[in-house]
Each structure stands twice: as structure tokens, then as C-alpha cells.
Amino acid sequence: MKKINKYNALVMVVFTIRVNCASADDILAISVVPIITSEVTSSDKHSLYGFTDKELKAVQFVQLNWSNLTADMAKGQGENLAVIADFLQVKPAQKPVFYTLSKVKFSLLLPSSKTTPEQLIKNFKLEVGKLSKV
User: Does the model's pTM come out above 0.70?
Assistant: First the structure.
């Protein structure tokens, strides 16, 4: 029996997705989320960007809610921003500061139109780390 390596498995997943999707929009709706999670183990920390399980879920949430989240960040309030605060385990007393930070440091958190969800969460983690020192 032939062994299946990660590359072949990924090609099979992509092929399966393409066959079962009616349009490009369907493919985009599926996104990279299943591919990212397929490499995840049950440990607390992962080699993928050094994220915890909750942070990986935050990345997935960002992928699925990008437009709404960035709108909330620009306003410094909103449901999607509150979810990110929870994923990043921002303490309740620090949440108002976190929300203001997302608005004031918007261009630092999202430095370009090519910023990825992983980079956004990494940038948030850096800022949340600074909050805990205050």
C-alpha cells in the first residue's frame, strides 16, 4: 500500500473541495480553515506562529469575519472585536483599553492591505502583552 504524504493529502483535499463546489465563491467560503486545522495537534502551543488553540480559533474567526472585524476595530467597539478580546483572553478590566487600542492603533495592527489574519492576531498579541504590563 502506498503512503500518502502531506502534499498528496493536501492536493486530494483541494481536488475534493473543487469537485464539490459550484463556483469560486464556494471555494472561498471553505477557505484555508480546514487545511490549517489538519496540522494542529492537541498540545497547548503549536509551531504554527506559536499560537495556542484559542489563538488559532481567533485566526479562523478573523478569516471568516474580516470585514466586520476591521469595521469594529475602526470604531473601537463591536461584537466581533469582543470575540477577539475573548479569544486573546483580555481581562474584563482591560477590555475598554483593548477596544480603544484597536481604534487608535488600527494602522499598526493592520499595516497594509496584505496583512493576513495570522499577522493581525500576532499584532494583537503584542499589544495585549503590553496591556498586561500596565
Answer: no
